[in-house]
């Protein structure tokens, strides 16, 4: 089958590894003869992948760097074509979507193994492309707010929340979910001119630029999806007893680093967190409720073929490319 892989070493033979030597986009290769995976364990499903997506940090996970060509891609929407004999929840022919765990991936391919915990039935009102654009970003946003920050899905009373990178693939769902839960949301972006109208259209109560931080009141919760250097400035706008949540791959270890550099000085009472999103039926259930109500859908910026995935990965690192996910059609 056709699939995208990342080379394990540089042309000079130096092993790629994150964070010290992550693979560049040039290490992404399309192979025509990758063995088609087979169901071998209880809970496994083989799906024919109809659509996947590109993440900004696809090459920034340690799990991608075993001593062989790792398969890329985590979001998926597709058709179940094989199940384990013990499978109870899914059948051949089911239309599913979800996010494969970070320690495995493999959805930039014609076929992929996912688990029954990772898969949910695709809502009929979503296209393959819209369905693939939801899970990874929406799961991360849901878990940031309701699992790690500890918010209630119905706000009583409303929290004051600042979201950075608010117009990005994850930020847009952070805004929508927090607003839907009844919280007061300020969306931070690098450009109000470029992103202000979009952010207000998805519910943000106020839109600010990062350079405005010095003029802002402090917030109960700050969720950073922009990463460095914006993350360092977030300490100045979180209340001394507030919560700061980060999840960008490059933000790993920020709590100790900022403490050692004095960046978080004076905010020792802040509950600072870092997490990596994991597949969750609970999160997918909440997302499905939003989809059924029409309050949230997958935002698709554009679609690309598997042959163009390297260029697509490079483009997601560019500002101003638009709003939504780049969807890969194997």
Strand residues, percent: 25-35%
- Mass-distribution shape: globular
Distance between the ends: 10 Å
Helix and strand run: EEEEEEEEHHEHEHEEHEHEHEHE
Could you list the spans in which at least 5 consecutive residues all have pLDDT below 50? none
Number of strands: 16
Instruction: Count the DSSP helices.
Output: 8
**Major pleated sheet:** 7 strands, mixed
Radius of gyration (Å): 20 Å
Q: Provide the structure class.
A: alpha/beta
Roughly what is the average pLDDT, rounded to an integer?
Answer: 91
Helical fraction equals 10-25%
Task: List strands and helices in order, with pairings.
Layout: E1 3-6, E2 28-31, E3 44-53, E4 70-71, E5 75-83, E6 95-99, E7 111-115, E8 119-121, H1 128-133, H2 135-148, E9 160-164, H3 171-180, E10 184-189, H4 192-201, E11 206-209, E12 219-224, H5 230-233, E13 238-246, H6 254-261, E14 271-274, H7 281-293, E15 300-305, H8 309-315, E16 325-329
Parallel strand pairs: 9-10, 9-12, 10-11, 12-13, 13-14, 15-16
Antiparallel strand pairs: 1-2, 1-4, 3-5, 3-7, 3-16, 5-6, 6-8
Helix pairs in contact: 2-3, 2-7
